[in-house]
Write the C-alpha cells for this entry.
Amino acid sequence: MRMKVLQIASAEILPRSCHIHNKPATTTTCLQAKRSIFSGFDNMNTSQTVSLPAPMTNHPRRYERPIQVHLCYQATCNGDLDGVKEQVRRLLHGHKAAPPGQEPRPEWLFSSLCEAISRKDIGIVQFLLGEKVAGEDLPGDLAVRSQAFEILELFLRCGWDINKPLGRNQPSVLGYCF
C-alpha cells in the first residue's frame, strides 16, 4: 500500500521531465528528487496519538442571557410598557440578573426594540431608546419597512443621521423610501 502511494504521488509530481534537474525524467535523474520528497514517510511514527483539550467545566456560557431578556420580549409582544420597565429595571439596574462573570448589557434587549418598532409602539420604543438599547445604530431600516413614521420622527429627534448609509454598498434609509 505504501509503495502504491509513493508511485502515484511520484507520477503526479514528476510527470515527463524532472522539474528539479530540468532533464528528461529517468530513474537516475529523479531518484534523488523522489528520496528528498518522500523521505518524511519513512520517519513517520504512526503510533502517535493526538491529545484532546481538557473539557470545559463551570465556565460561564458566553452567549447565555438572563431570563429578563425573554420576559422583556414577551412584554413587548403584549404591548405591556409596565412589564418592559420592570424587566429592564431588574436586568440593567439590578445586580443579580446577569450570568456570573458578565455585566448586564442594554444591547441584549435589541430584539425587544425591534419588536416594538414593528408593532409601532412608540411608548416602548421611547423607553428602550432612553435605556440606550440601540447604542449608536438606530434600526431606521426596520422603521421604514414597518412604515412606522412616528418612530422615524422620534429617531430624528434623538439625533439620528438619516443620510448615513446603512452599510457598505447600501444606500441610506432615504433610498428605501422611494
Notes: The first strand starts at residue 17 and ends at 18. Residues 2-39 form one domain.
